[in-house]
Amino acid sequence: MSQPTSSLSKLALQKFKRNFWGVFSFVFIVIIGLISIFAYILAPDNSQHANQMHLAIHSQKPGFTVDMLVIPESKKSEQALMNKLFFGYQNSDTEIPVAEHVLENNQLTYTEYAADNLKGLTKTIDLSIYAENSTKPFVEERTFMFGTDKYGRDLLSRVLVGARISFFIGFIAVFISLVVGILMGSLAGYFGGKVDAVIMWIINVSWSIPTLLLVIAITLALGKGFWQVFIAVGLTMWVEVARVVRGQVISVKEMQYVTAARALGFNDYRIITKHILPNIMAPVIVISAANFAAAILIESGLSFLGIGAQPPMSSWGAMIKDHYNYIILGKPYLALIPGFCIMSLVMAFMLMGNALRDALDVRS
């Protein structure tokens, strides 16, 4: 009677499922990924980059509530549904915080909100000219769950939209580092000799340059922007992958199954891609999880220095840069909230990486 057998991948999956923090981190990362994709659906401010400013209510505490006068946009251009989903609404309504308002015969008299116990201006508008463009109440109560930033923008919306950069930079940077690192490491480890010497020289030169300094140099060469940061971070993270892949290939290329593949006349490309790489991917997967966390931290540092994602694009690092001085002004939450988001996402990737390392360790 034959005993049921399980593949190594199934055994690794079972070990991973038994790790509470690994599973918890994986679920957390998936939730953050869904939030980043559908940020404009979840965000109270669904304008592009969540950039609706209300200077009268700047730097308000979490849970702040105010009446908001919403004046519909008179001319709204057509915008595709997918464009709204991924890039927000291009034409947003005009919003004015009000302290008091009175409606009589389509005439709305309101007093603008003013902080520090000041008296705002009193104005009157005719709502009949906007009635055709809106089916919603013109004055609605608005609650800012995370408060507002120094420009009066909804901090919760900025955090949700900013999750996109921190999350997707991990995927793109790790993808670039895997493509370059696996290619260079495989060539160096498999062929050896002069090929190995040249590639190792490139690796050592790249390794000797501080990561942040190299990223800054690449960013300045490519220009400031969204995609430039992704490429710059990815091109600085391939070295560690290449070193790991090179070491693994050197230890595996003399195994019997590789020798048998050579004896059967398979070419080098097939031996590397079909026989060697599938058997050395466990440490590469683990290092990729760590590189996710490193990419998020590097992007946050670049945004803090002002050479990452550019305004008005929302980024957790840029939010810390804009509000770190508020820590000593009695409003530390403006910097602590995005800082906690960075910390929690990085910790989730590190915990998942540790869980993957334990699950893929054949000795355990």
From TrEMBL:
<keyword id="KW-1003">Cell membrane</keyword>
<feature type="transmembrane region" description="Helical">
    <location>
        <begin position="165"/>
        <end position="191"/>
    </location>
</feature>
<feature type="transmembrane region" description="Helical">
    <location>
        <begin position="280"/>
        <end position="307"/>
    </location>
</feature>
<keyword id="KW-0813">Transport</keyword>
<dbReference type="GO" id="GO:0005886">
    <property type="term" value="C:plasma membrane"/>
</dbReference>
<dbReference type="Pfam" id="PF00528">
    <property type="entry name" value="BPD_transp_1"/>
</dbReference>
<keyword id="KW-0812">Transmembrane</keyword>
<feature type="transmembrane region" description="Helical">
    <location>
        <begin position="20"/>
        <end position="43"/>
    </location>
</feature>
<keyword id="KW-0472">Membrane</keyword>
<dbReference type="InterPro" id="IPR050366">
    <property type="entry name" value="BP-dependent_transpt_permease"/>
</dbReference>
<comment type="similarity">
    <text>Belongs to the binding-protein-dependent transport system permease family.</text>
</comment>
<feature type="domain" description="ABC transmembrane type-1">
    <location>
        <begin position="163"/>
        <end position="353"/>
    </location>
</feature>
<feature type="transmembrane region" description="Helical">
    <location>
        <begin position="226"/>
        <end position="245"/>
    </location>
</feature>
<dbReference type="Pfam" id="PF12911">
    <property type="entry name" value="OppC_N"/>
</dbReference>
<dbReference type="InterPro" id="IPR000515">
    <property type="entry name" value="MetI-like"/>
</dbReference>
<dbReference type="GO" id="GO:0055085">
    <property type="term" value="P:transmembrane transport"/>
</dbReference>
<feature type="transmembrane region" description="Helical">
    <location>
        <begin position="198"/>
        <end position="220"/>
    </location>
</feature>
<feature type="transmembrane region" description="Helical">
    <location>
        <begin position="333"/>
        <end position="356"/>
    </location>
</feature>
<dbReference type="InterPro" id="IPR025966">
    <property type="entry name" value="OppC_N"/>
</dbReference>
<keyword id="KW-1133">Transmembrane helix</keyword>
<protein>
    <submittedName>
        <fullName>Peptide transporter</fullName>
    </submittedName>
</protein>
<dbReference type="InterPro" id="IPR035906">
    <property type="entry name" value="MetI-like_sf"/>
</dbReference>
